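Field guide to reading this record: the first block holds the primary sequence, the second block holds the structure written as C-alpha cells, and the final block holds curator observations. Each block starts with its own label. This record concerns Putative tRNA (cytidine(34)-2'-O)-methyltransferase, catalogued under organism Periweissella fabalis.

BLOCK 1 — SEQUENCE
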Amino acid sequence: MKNHIVLFEPLMPANTGNIARTCAGTDTVLHLIEPLGFSTDDKMMKRAGLDYWDKVEIKYHKNLPAFVESLGENDRLYLVSKFAEKSYHQVDYTNEDLDYYFLFGKETTGLPEPFMRANPEKAIRIPQDDEHIRSLNLANSAAIVIYEALRQQDFPNLETTHLYENDKLKD
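BLOCK 2 — STRUCTURE
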C-alpha cells in the first residue's frame, strides 16, 4: 500500500512546496501533472519545501490522460472536489493491496468539468461552509485528506510518539 498526492496543473509554487513537505513527512509520492504554473527550480517553491526536496519522490506527467494511463488495476483514484457528494472520511483506505491516489485540481479552476462528470463515483469532498469561502487552501486540503488515509492505515512507517529522557509524560 502506498499513498499518492496528485496535483493537476498547479499554479502556486508555495502550495506545491508545502505539499511536497507534507509528502516528505508522510512517505507519500507526489505527482505533478503539467503544465505547471512555475518552474520546479522556483525559489519560492524551494523555500516552501525547505530542505526536504531530496526526501520526496516526485513523478511528472505530461497531461491528465498520461497520468490516468499510468494507473494500474490495483490503484484507487479519488478526485478531491468541493462538488463531490461523498466526504473524504466516508471512504475506506485500508486495503493493503491497493495504492491510493488523491487528485487535486488547479487552484483557480479545480479539475476539468468533463473529467469530473465522467468519474462522479471517484469524487470526494472536504466539508466546508460554501457560503463564506469559495474553497480551502490546496496545501491544507492535501494535508487533511492524506492524514485521514494515514489515520485509517494506522500511520504506517510513521513515528507517532516521541519520548525523550527529559519528558515528564513518560510511561
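BLOCK 3 — OBSERVATIONS
The longest strand covers residues 3-8.
The two ends are 32 Å apart (CA to CA).
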